[in-house]
Design a protein that fits this description.
This protein is an all-beta fold and 114 residues long. The protein has no helices and 9 strands. It has a domain of 79 residues: Immunoglobulin-like (Sandwich), CATH 2.60.40.730. Bound molecules: fe (ii) ion (FE2). The site of fe (ii) ion (FE2) has 7 residues, from loops.
Length: 114
Amino acid sequence: MKIIKCNNGNIMGVLKEVSDVSDKILSANSVDASFEKHIPNYEIIGDEVKLYVSHVMEEDHYIEWIMADYGDKEIIKHLKPHEEPMVVVPYQEGMKAYSYCNKHSLWLKDKIER
Ligand SMILES: [Fe+2]
């Protein structure tokens, strides 16, 4: 999945690419910030996986969403300040997980395996 940032600041997932959006595509793990505090961690429990981020959830600095990317579908959990940055979703081999920090942009865990 490609995730783009529009000129107005909106963050959008590209469902179908019909024109070149390469100048706006967000590049995961590219901001100079702590990897450990932004890249999703995971714990596989049976058929499910718990995705969580070890990040503060303050009013002005927090994880806005966590997304499980299965390649052919996504599950996204939107978060608010003071909520736990965690979601439990079905586990599937080859899945990836993204998180988005309001200050430090997009982060990706590209291998979630048993
Ligand atoms: Fe952050």
